Amino acid sequence: MAKERGLISPEDFVQLQKYMEYSTQKVSDVLKLFEDGEMAKYLQGDAIGYEGFEQFLKIYLEVDDVPSHLSSALFQSFHNGQCLNETLLKDVVCLSDVSCYFSLLEGGRPEDKLEFTFKLYDTDRNGILDSSEVEKIILQMMRVAEYLDWDVSELRPILQEMMKEIDYDGSGSVSLAEWVRAGATMVPLLVLLGLEMTLKDDGQHMWRPKRFPRPVYCNLCESSIGLGKQGLSCNLCKYTVHDHCAMKAAPCEVSTYAKSRKDIGVQSHVWVRGGCESGRCDRCQKKIRIYHSLTGLHCVWCHLQIHDDCLEAVGPECDCGLLREHILPPSSIYPSVLASGQERKQSKRSQKSMDDLNVFTSEALRIEPVPNTHPLLVFVNPKSGGKQGQRVLWKFQYILNPRQVFNLLQDGPEPGLRFFKDVPDSRILVCGGDGTVGWILESIEKANLPVVPPVAVLPLGTGNDLARCLRWGGGYEGQNLAKILKDLEMSKVVHIDRWSLEVIPQQTEEKSDPVPFQIINNYFSIGVDASIAHRFHIMREKYPEKFNSRMKNKLWYFEFATSESIFSTCKKLEESLTVEICGKPLDLSNLSLEGIAVLNIPSMHGGSNLWGDAKRPHGDICGINQALGSTAKVITDPDILKTCVPDLSDKRLEVVGLEGAIEMGQIYTKLKSAGRRLAKCSEITFHTTKTLPMQIDGEPWMQSPCTIKITHKNQMPMLMGPPPRSSNFFGFLG
């Protein structure tokens, strides 16, 4: 952190951000109180004295008693004697400086910040920014950069050059239109006006409570935390302390991006004392006496664990260790403003509309991955799998760069996709259930990425049919994430089909539930199967605690299937609907069905294969491929269907008939192998004449009479896990 006169300390800055995190006030609201409200009495031209500054902090931070050392240090940091009114005494600070600084740190839309900042510094209210007003904006950007520990000696000339470029018409001043245009086209302007990060790289630890099953020593006082006792551990660096030692802890050593040009391209070790869980030195292979005191060092990037005495033998440069294939080290990420002038010009956005301003976060930092690596973008749904999702999020924040790991409950997938938009050879890992995977695939499609990265799945919770088919298993059960990432290195890309579903309702007084999705990734069904799923869904929504394991889910499903068999709500389904495959009617007259399932993958309801097992006969591959060719888009011949093997990327759907709830329950509980194979086709249409239960990818609803059209939409690259080994991970059922 910079130590120049007038800057607050790192500790004060951390405390200030904590206040801001819990405050609900906005700078613009507080500013109104000083301009024409009850605080106007403290205003002296364009300035406020120390008493008025204290009132500003109390209102804005919603704190009755701001620590005197904090308010004093902040006041001095703004004390530059550059207010417009030159007759003011030196014991005042410019209100516009204060309000602008806090507006830069607080959240908000970039377009709002642009206009707000323009009005703040257009002090003579003439609608333009002259050279002195522009210089004050640069001064404020520099101040924020110093607090974020950036190398301001490099930043000032860059900002001065950029601010000159904002004057598009060369008039010597900047209009609001030029200011807004610059915000949409120039990254540097938005870097410090809108860079809002959960990870502020300000030395603040990301604490989480943790109970320790083995002796652990506090990094601050070095005394034992106690076996089975709770302490605090930083997600980023594994710095560990007693609860009461946290406030005195040394700053976090982790910086997630390079803040100076000299740090770009070369990654150094970042050592933290303790955390040597293996108990063995990776340098000399001798034991580290971790049970006797705080000893040993671990690197937060390559995860080497060494003796203190072995440090000199290791060397300063870090290669990110066994997981270098996936990691974006800080040396590969740097502020776009530190790029060379030519690089900045090449990276200017071609789109200049205000609608594009929401991409500022992705452009604030530039990424240049280590050659011959595949940086991993990780999305985690913390709610998936009970508490599993949150634990997975914490683990990935440590073993990877935290900037690669995105909590889907905060801002969804869009920020991560924007951040990785131009990263070559990247991959995506989705940690969640089938619904989370579908959400990510849809977001990827909408993002219009230049190259679509392949997607792998770490299945959380129950179900996980797509993950099963891609060999990632039925559910994560706490295995070593590093081993799973090594499996990901051996994965292969497959292109999974995705299908559009169009529901055209008939004119009727019957009411329908909302259709959950318009895209099918896994399967679609009508009738008994959907009816059971609908009852299952309603009960789980009402009593979620009864559906917290795969075994309980199977028992509940079997119970619903049994009761459904008694009432037979979907009996004689063929009388209530007709089916067309590629424009040809599918004959159901000789069948007694209660349900029809349309499969894109050979797994439903947590591993049930309605299509059943089939082995392609030797020597007949060519014949079947011809049957699946463009001249024969439909297969209904029972003999050929017996040998058809489901394929995730053949642009074909498998159609299966279900004879009743008992059969469905038997298939789900593995007492029966499959339903009745009806067809394999590339397009299917249903016409229904009464309200029927339906489901898409496990999400059921009741649908009034309608026409449903299912057509091929596109393909998405996915990662197929390596073939299962004898001791495969998280119980994959091949």
Automatic annotation (TrEMBL):
**What this chain does, per the record?**
Diacylglycerol kinase that converts diacylglycerol/DAG into phosphatidic acid/phosphatidate/PA and regulates the respective levels of these two bioactive lipids. Thereby, acts as a central switch between the signaling pathways activated by these second messengers with different cellular targets and opposite effects in numerous biological processes. Also plays an important role in the biosynthesis of complex lipids. Can also phosphorylate 1-alkyl-2-acylglycerol in vitro as efficiently as diacylglycerol provided it contains an arachidonoyl group.
Reactions catalysed, as given in the entry: 1,2-dihexadecanoyl-sn-glycerol + ATP = 1,2-dihexadecanoyl-sn-glycero-3-phosphate + ADP + H(+); 1-octadecanoyl-2-(5Z,8Z,11Z,14Z-eicosatetraenoyl)-sn-glycerol + ATP = 1-octadecanoyl-2-(5Z,8Z,11Z,14Z-eicosatetraenoyl)-sn-glycero-3-phosphate + ADP + H(+); 2-(9Z-octadecenoyl)-glycerol + ATP = 2-(9Z-octadecenoyl)-sn-glycero-3-phosphate + ADP + H(+); 1-O-alkyl-2-acyl-sn-glycerol + ATP = 1-O-alkyl-2-acyl-sn-glycero-3-phosphate + ADP + H(+)
Predominant location:
cytoplasm
Q: Which GO terms describe its molecular function?
A: alkylglycerol kinase activity; ATP binding; ATP-dependent diacylglycerol kinase activity; calcium ion binding; zinc ion binding
Which residues belong to any copy of the Phorbol-ester/DAG-type domain?
Answer: 204-252, 268-318
**Gene Ontology CC:** cytosol; plasma membrane
* Subcellular locations according to the entry: Cytoplasm, Cytosol
A Pfam family annotated for this UniProt entry: DAGK_acc
Q: Which PROSITE patterns match?
A: DAGK, EF_HAND_1, EF_HAND_2, ZF_DAG_PE_1, ZF_DAG_PE_2
**The name this protein goes by in its record:** Diacylglycerol kinase
According to its UniProt entry, this protein's organism is Heterocephalus glaber
Q: Which domain of life is it from?
A: Eukaryota
EC top class, as a word:
transferase
**DAGKc domain: from which residue to which, for each copy?**
371-505
Q: Which UniProt keywords apply?
A: Acetylation, ATP-binding, Calcium, Cytoplasm, Kinase, Lipid metabolism, Metal-binding, Nucleotide-binding, Repeat, Transferase, Zinc, Zinc-finger
**What SUPFAM superfamilies does this protein's entry cite?**
Cysteine-rich domain (SSF57889), EF-hand (SSF47473), NAD kinase/diacylglycerol kinase-like (SSF111331)
Q: List its EC numbers.
A: 2.7.1.107
Family note: Belongs to the eukaryotic diacylglycerol kinase family.
Q: Tell me, which GO biological process terms does this entry list?
A: diacylglycerol metabolic process; lipid phosphorylation; phosphatidic acid biosynthetic process; phospholipase C-activating G protein-coupled receptor signaling pathway
* InterPro entries in the record: ATP-NAD_kinase_N, C1-like_sf, C1_DGKalpha_rpt2, DAG_kinase_typeI_N, DGK, DGK_typeI_N_sf, Diacylglycerol_kin_accessory, Diacylglycerol_kinase_cat_dom
Q: Partners and quaternary state?
A: Monomer.
> Where is each EF-hand domain found?
109-144, 154-189
Pathway assigned to this chain's UniProt record: Glycerolipid metabolism; Lipid metabolism; glycerolipid metabolism
